[in-house]
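Budget justification note: compute hours in this period were largely spent on complex prediction jobs such as the one shown. Inputs:
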Amino acid sequence: MQSPLSVPGRESVHADEVLTARSGDETFYQALRARGVSRRSFMQFVGAVAGMLGLEASFVPRIAQALQVQRKLPLVWLEFQDCAGNTESFLRAAKPSVDEVILEAISLNYHETIMAAAGHLAEEVLQKTVRESPGEYIAVVEGSIPTADGGVYCTIGGRTALDIAREVCGNALATVAAGTCACFGGLPAAAPNPTGAVSVSAAVPGATVINLSACPFNAANITALLVHYLTFGRFPATDNLGRPLFAYGKRIHDACERRAHFDAGQYAERFGDQGHRLGYCLYKLGCKGPATYQNCPTVRWNEGMNWPIGAGHPCVGCAEPYFWDTMTPFYERLPKVAGFGVDADADAVGVGIVAGTAAAFTAHGILKSIQRRRAEIKEKEPSGSESTEE
Amino acid sequence: MARIVVDPITRIEGHLRIEAEVDAGRISNAWSSATMFRGVEIILKGRDPRDAWVFTQRICGVCTTVHAITSVRAVENALGITVPENAELIRSLIAGLQQVQDHVVHFYHLHALDWVDIVSALQADPVKTASLAQSISEWPLSSPTYFRGVLNRVKTFVEAGQLGPFDNAYWGHPAYKLPPEANLMAVAHYLEALEWQRDVIKGHAILGGKNPHLQTYLVGGMAVPLDLDSQQAVNAHTIATLQSLFKKAKTFVEQVYVPDLLAVASFYPEWTQWGAGVGNYMSYGDFPTTARLDPAQLFLPRGVVFDKRLDAPQPLDMQKIAEYVAHSYYEYAGGDGQALHPFQGETNPRYTGPQPPYDFLDTEGKYSWLKAPRYDDRPMEVGPLSRMLVAYANGHQRVRELVSFVLERLKVGPEALFSTLGRTAARGIETLVIAEQLLGWLDKLAANMDRGDLVIHNDEKWDPSSWPEEAEGWGFHEAPRGALGHWVRIERGKIAGYQAVVPSTWNGGPRDARGQRGPYEEALVGTPIADVEKPLEILRTVHSFDPCMACAAHLVDVRGRELAQVRIL
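Corresponding output:
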């Protein structure tokens, strides 16, 4: 069995060695205990994470062990063409006392919105992480990266976002694209994409990128992603869009609490009508749940308090690529599936919807424009990519 | 003389840069530059106006929801749609909770560390800290045991050697003046506020599905159903939960935020002398007090105060709003010397700044991605201070009571309001004023439901075929950071033009064609800088406006040598 602490491309490390070799580093478990979190609470948290990852109970001790001996993973968080919505989402994460500590489970070396204040040493911490720990830190990127006109549409400290992303993501163990803008270009890349905004994987083609899409992403998913890595020493399996299957493996429609109403042909026809008040299916009001993959219905938001469909508004498909162009107009039934009747088989409807979405891509020429855009970006890249190791 | 570069700060959520000249220990000139552009207004062209709020909400994820409400109001204004009272109440509840939560987060997590030294807290005596806390508030978490626990947590954290987000700050800077006990109390409340903000914002999830980026607005109303006899709608259980959250919000503001604000402010009286800015204040007003959104019947009034003249408030005329691009990376078809009203507004980006990487901007030419909005051709400050001053000048009873209370406690006169500290204090006053209203608005909603009024959406004009060929309208909102306006033109069912003029544009915009500085720029002039490598003073004044995001700053002297960098939170 692979050691829980093995890292791809490196020799696996036994837990005891880590404890001995890195006794100076505080582990997640130690950090928790130091903050007064009981062993019992810790195990409850581990159980919740295992559940989120879709793991059986037998994995709980394994996760617990990993969190107790794993040294803190360095993490830097960059913001480009963003709204900080993913940062805010991260700050609302799960169980109060525990997610605070999650910030300590990792070593959050750089995050503009969270860092207290620092002189030039703040920038040095970022540079130090990149230069001294290449391949050993996680980069999180929030926001898209503009590539048009030499990248002048987003500069930080006089440097372009593209320049910074190439250096920081290019040297990272892996990059987490936080939210749909970083995953797929998102809002800035919506037609006509005035700034040539692209995703992280398009901007830094060689980087290992895990996409956590949605607008914003659900903090529970990055927590689970990090724990997955800390526990198993590798990143989870993803779909063909680079999104972890544990969070994007199922259509919203398939896990929706209103699904029974869909199957029964019970629809809200107008906002505020009886069907709407009784929680009937929102499909006819424009719901994009049948074409959207995310664990929204099961994880929900704000500590499980609610989720958009739960509050009566149709899904807008925010976890899907180019949803600003393919899922709009939001209040129209996007997949105009001919002959869709109240007794239609739900899965057949789903197939039709996927086809419809593909048709919409083609019809709007969006796929082509994206391909064109990517080709343009490639042309703009220097022939020899910058060295990632110094 | 030294040239200081603070980069970046933001447009709203993007990135903002400030360059300043320091002469004989004071800032003699300053320039505010936004360094990020996304082109949301361009992206909106040709789209369904009913979708616009989903797009515009993404302008900002910190003050999430504010561009959503403004957008639906703009379209409703254009199409002549009247929103049901229930929907107005739900909007007020969401916006009010946003104000309260956002202001508390700003005070504790973005602004407090300009005044509070965490490292000094390590020297605190828990018993004395408890005495201090109990002398200023009834807040129950105030025992010596509690503060000893906090102290031990901080000590353990520091001694572990991994300071994480608290690493490398200006701890020990001589401008920090709080005694260790006040610092420890503030640190404890910093941690409490972190948990509090996560908790109270669940009210947004209840009414809007999630936070950030609520998903519940509709042109013509709101999407959250009301029904006392449904488990999938706002019902008695939901109302009880909201009541509990709103009470929790108000109690924290009364017993923690406001007492802390007064305690901290009392140690920094000199900050009532600096940071006044342009001295002109504008509020669009917000929170309808009647069943309909009537600009003359708003809980926080609409109006303008020029030249700090609280005795002579003026009515607001939205026709007097116009934007310059003389120093902005845009061009107007009719020439850059003119100012355009948002209905005639153009967004034609044309970058003429230095090619990155660069050290300095050409501040003689165009130097920002922000336009320069003006009212009656004058720069205006917007935000909590403006709202409180306009309300005060218009005789708002509760605002007057609380302003007087705060001025008495700090032993200063009304002129102290026109300052960095006044701006920070006004935010606290406003938080209390609004926190006091939430339960009342919820009661009104419950009373309507009790009468059987469950209407949340007016869909008479939901179908685009019911719209006129052409229409235009504007939507307003008082966002946490100030007066927010969206202007929309609709042609044949599609958006033909969209302009957002946001609080950070008013406050952080560059010079206009006449060379008048914007509010950030003006407020910084005259601010003393004790140590150009550690310009805490710049942080204090810039943060008092609550710029929307965290930024890094670079300090560079006139020869271009990098001296230091400053993190702006």
